[in-house]
Amino acid sequence: MRSLNLWKKDNAKRGKGNHQLIFFTENKTPPIRFVNYEKQSNVTLHNHGHSVEVSGFDTWPERPFITDGGLGSKYLLTELHFHWSQKQNGSEHTVDGQHFDAELHLVHVKEGLTPEEAILTSDGFAVVGIFYKTALSGSPLLALQNQLSQVTEKDATVQIDNWKTNVLLPTVMNTFFRYNGSLTKGGCHEAVIWSVYKVPRFNNAELIQLLRTIEGEDGKPIQTNVRPVQPFNKTA
Description:
The chain has helices at residues 115-118, 142-148, 205-211; strands spanning 6-9, 20-25, 32-35, 40-47, 52-55, 65-68, 75-84, 93-95, 102-110, 125-139, 157-164, 175-181, 192-197, 201-203, 229-230, 234-235. The protein has 236 residues and is mainly beta. The protein has one domain (2-230): Alpha carbonic anhydrase (Carbonic Anhydrase II, Roll). The N and C termini lie close together (10 Å). It comes from Heterodera trifolii.
């Protein structure tokens, strides 16, 4: 089945790890439940010099989390960030060789664990990957787009009021890929349950244009913050 040909961009060492790909549809497993993703509160948008990150969910009175979908536990949203490129190959994963303009990573930590503890366990984190694709009919992300121009420079930070996370999700979410792997930034600890949705979120062109203005360590727009493509050890 060609739809299983998902490739990952990962910094795990070649030959290390058990990256078994599993294909989930709505007919085979319950969907992942995104709880409190519709709630509103304040977040911080920060330019780390290698991406832009939205954080502050740990202070929310009703913190967003995910559960079900074969995860086996409750995972609390800790931060989200984007990957992109100055070209069209801005996604951390490809499907059937196809890149996307950008990719969103929603990073969740297992309930009851600190991030420092989670990184030492094989299922400490659950990261949801969402492909982003530009389309004429794509909908804007105004809360984010209105503030991206304020964090162009490295270490710039701005608060966003009344943030809602569910607007970042695609319309169709009945098919996703699943594998165990590592974070695509930081160390090579294989502590992540990855869930990558097949159908992208369609956005207006301004979002990608704004991401491409974000500056890195050298004070110039980041050319790319994606990893070289590596195949899975196994596919299912």
